[in-house]
Amino acid sequence: MNKASKKTAHQLSARSLFIWRAIQIAVWIVGASILFNLIFFPKLGIHLFWNILIPVAPALLVVGVGIWRNVCPMASNALFARHMGISKRKKLSISQSGKLNLIAVIALFLIVPLRHAFFDLNGFYTAMLILSLGLIAVVTGFFFEWKSAWCSGLCPVHPVEKLYGLNHQLSLPNAHCDRCHRCVTPCPDSTPGITPFSSKKTKVHKVSGFLMVATFPGFVWGWFQVPDVDGISSFGQLLGIYKMPFLGMLASIVLYLVLNYFFKKKELVAIFSASAVSCYYWYRLPALFGFGLYPLDGVLVDLSGVLPSWIFTVLAYTTTLFFFWWILFKKPNKFSWVNRPVFAEKE
Prior knowledge:
With 347 residues, the chain is mostly helical. It has one domain (12-329). 62% of the residues lie in helices and 0% in strands. It has helices at residues 3-7, 14-40, 42-71, 73-83, 94-111, 123-143, 150-154, 158-164, 203-223, 235-259, 265-288, 310-329. The chain starts with a helix and ends in an 18-residue tail after the last helix.
């Protein structure tokens, strides 16, 4: 391959760019439709968002995180100003980038337990959450360069992407960035083998990486030990929805510190990644069909009177075996979530 062909190897053709833009618009419209339903037809909106979209998301991040990075509606919101040429394009310092990563992790741990009291049962509250995050995405995209402030910074889903996307198997073009402007280092999209520990430039980076890896399996387990309640009427109830997730986080940290003596860090990240996503589907799949710990919570279709419970026991073991095989034992690839475009000329 000559130099000229190398320079354009990861550039999208006009046809491919059109297809990706069409997909991005279609997914954005689907997201807007879900938002509409959450406000005006809340029962349907809750099913579409919490009981269909969200249960699919972890598996998508494991198998093909690059797909989500290319079509995420929040990313489209954040990058709209940049695509329109009206972004201020400010550069984040390494210190600022680390702080945004830590805020994203903390936001994840604070927002998810609130599902039990507000978001899982109230379409309007969920809509307000989505609109608030969407507004933050748009504002950060207006002021800062490309994906640095939202997609690779403040987005609460991004820490999960780095934990779950360890062994994705799809090599995709970057459907947003036509040139690499080095907006964040290391770029999560374009760095092969990216993990929550890949950014070690500051103590804040290290803390956010440790929190995400060491605590997440316990956090997921603890979240499923809490039933949904219709709102919060006392401080004790508020503490109640955080108690089990946070106790699970503490137990997970202890386990991580013990296993740290026996496994290399890369192996440990994979073990905790597989444990977290397996734990999620262990509880979530039965709950979708009326076989959860709390049978009325998070039900898409109640099949408890139709199917025997052992089917979901088998399904839980099957998904666990799959995720451990995929993340720990499947031959790792050597490519990034999406292909890095050519570097832009220094400005």
